[in-house]
Amino acid sequence: MSDRIALAAVAGAHGIRGELRLKLFSDSAESLAHHSTVFVGGREMQLQSVKDSGKTAIARVAGVNDRSTAEALRGSLIEVDRASLPPLGEGEYYHADLIGLPCVSHEGAALGTVVAVENFGAGDLLEVEGAEGRRALIPFRPGIADLADGQIVLDPEFLA
User: Is 61 exposed, middle or buried (0-12, 13-18, 19+ CB in 10 A)?
Assistant: First the structure.
């Protein structure tokens, strides 16, 4: 498990005063606003404000005071310490916890490893890499891909 969890990524600058346009990985800007200290591209910074802006969020962090400094952070992850997050409920997970998990069939045969988790709006997709290096996106849905005992149990039909 990672010591930090990514809650957003910097999509670019907003305006000329150093505000950051964010792509959120959570349901709302509120989940990020609870944190005063964040890591931007691995550097610890103070989060001064976050507000919803439709499909994105706008944030201000200490030390970023102009557009060029904000633009230089494009693509950086906004992370928080795992210990600062609330405990997970039953059936909840962080994407970071799924990456690296082995994938097996219902019979226990090795099928690959989770190398990424994507979400394009319709639910989580697991990117699974097989032993031969071939990758497939698998819906993370009950019966198709289930988290059980520290591994992902997959229906091999979805590896086509």
Answer: buried
pLDDT in tens, 83-111: 888 888 887 788 888 999 999 999 999 99
Q: Examine the pLDDT at 1 and tell me if it is beyond 80.
A: no
Same domain, yes or no: 77 and 104: no
28 and 49 in a common domain: yes
Vertex 9 angle, CA 32 and 127, to 5°: 110
Q: Name the nearest CA neighbour of 61 among 21, 27, 26.
A: 21
Q: Is the pTM of this model over 0.85?
A: no
Q: Residue 147: which domain range?
A: 95-159
Burial class (CB in 10 A: 0-12, 13-18, 19+), 158: middle
